[in-house]
Inverse folding.
């Protein structure tokens, strides 16, 4: 792949002709020409090949008050691109590398990054910073000189973006670009879930550590719930129960291993789950973000050893009420952030599993649009018609 520095852009401001700028909350994005600064120390500038839209983009797009209501802003955090240039002290990447930016930092130097007990970063992982994580400044400017804010340390709705090295993972150039987008997201926030494939499959593999023959219940068959099902299928779960109000999700879920489907509108899911699993599932996953549903997921698990994994952030800030007697008998409940995965070590492994046809990514992509039609991707997601819409830059 030809290196972009040969065109003479390294170290210079790039006049970027394609960036989708959100100027006011809830308003359609506007394709604008902007200026993108060169990377500073420990940063790289990336030419985005394609990006995709996540519920979290929509969540923050709607926020009109509070510290996260920062406009004008460039959204986007699921993407794949090619390194155009690197800043000082960058040794991990070079021009022409195919990379996936991730919102979850992984410095590999702090105590948390070195530990196998979690996937946090004690140096860069405590705050959702609006700009670059090291100096708190933006690399984007409008043509009139105004500052354009970053989003989740990625801002992929732009032909070029600048990302800190702790937020970037190198992958094989053999990996299909449109599938690589699905490797980059995985936290939940706000009124919608910013959960994706990495969170779901990581929750099944690393957090729950599902064994062969286990029974599983998944509350919510969106992108993350389906990813949990895929992870459970690959681990050899004997029964994978999907719980969702949308009856059409069952047909979709079958592609990812869902063997039974329950619609809570027509029956009480807790009772049905216990009946068809002889007392409750070994593992339950809540993928929506409702305290009432988290309680149902917990109650559907087996009395003496059931494990409930919470993937959604409670959208109304409602506390979770659990009878401690059930905890004493052996049930557990745990949270899950980015599937417990460490970006720089785990994403390349999962990418290879896809290339070896061991895992299914293709079924998550339901739509594709060109960059000029990025607002159509928002419409599709808001209407519930899309799992993931790939947005092609070129």
């Amino acid at each position: 792949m030809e290196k972009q520095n040969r065109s003479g852009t390294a170290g210079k401001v790039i006049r970027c002709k394609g960036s989708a700028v959100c100027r006011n909350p809830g308003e359609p994005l506007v394709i604008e020409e902007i200026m993108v600064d060169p990377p500073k120390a420990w940063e790289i500038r990336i030419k985005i090949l394609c990006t995709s839209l996540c519920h979290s983009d929509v969540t923050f797009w709607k926020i009109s008050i509070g510290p996260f209501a920062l406009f004008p802003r460039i959204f986007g955090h699921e993407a794949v691109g090619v390194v155009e240039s690197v800043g000082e002290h960058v040794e991990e990447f070079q021009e022409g590398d195919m990379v996936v930016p991730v919102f979850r930092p992984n410095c590999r130097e702090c105590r948390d990054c070195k530990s196998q007990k979690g996937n946090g970063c004690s140096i860069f992982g405590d705050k959702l910073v609006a700009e670059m994580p090291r100096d708190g400044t933006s690399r984007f400017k409008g043509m009139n000189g105004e500052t354009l804010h970053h989003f989740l340390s990625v801002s992929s709705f732009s032909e070029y973006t600048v990302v800190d090295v702790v937020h970037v993972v190198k992958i094989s150039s053999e990996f299909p670009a449109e599938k690589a987008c699905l490797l980059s997201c995985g936290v939940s926030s706000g009124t919608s879930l910013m959960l994706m494939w990495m969170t779901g499959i990581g929750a099944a593999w690393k957090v729950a550590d599902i064994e062969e023959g286990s029974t599983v219940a998944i509350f919510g068959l969106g992108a993350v719930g389906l990813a949990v099902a895929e992870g459970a299928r690959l681990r050899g779960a004997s029964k994978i129960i999907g719980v969702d109000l949308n009856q059409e999700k069952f047909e979709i879920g079958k592609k990812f291993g869902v063997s039974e489907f329950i619609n809570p509108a027509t029956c009480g899911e807790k009772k049905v789950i216990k009946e068809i699993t002889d007392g409750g599932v070994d593992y339950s996953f809540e993928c929506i973000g409702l305290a009432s549903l988290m309680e149902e997921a917990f109650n559907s698990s087996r009395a003496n050893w059931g494990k409930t994994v919470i993937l959604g952030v409670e959208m109304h800030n409602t506390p979770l009420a659990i009878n401690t007697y059930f905890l004493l008998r052996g049930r557990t409940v745990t949270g899950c952030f980015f599937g417990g995965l460490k970006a720089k070590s785990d994403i390349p492994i999962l990418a290879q599993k896809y290339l070896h046809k061991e895992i299914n990514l293709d079924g998550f992509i339901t739509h594709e649009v060109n960059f000029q039609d990025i607002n159509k991707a928002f419409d599709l997601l808001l209407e519930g018609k899309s799992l993931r819409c790939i947005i092609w830059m070129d």
About this structure: Residues 186-195 have pLDDT under 50 and may be disordered.
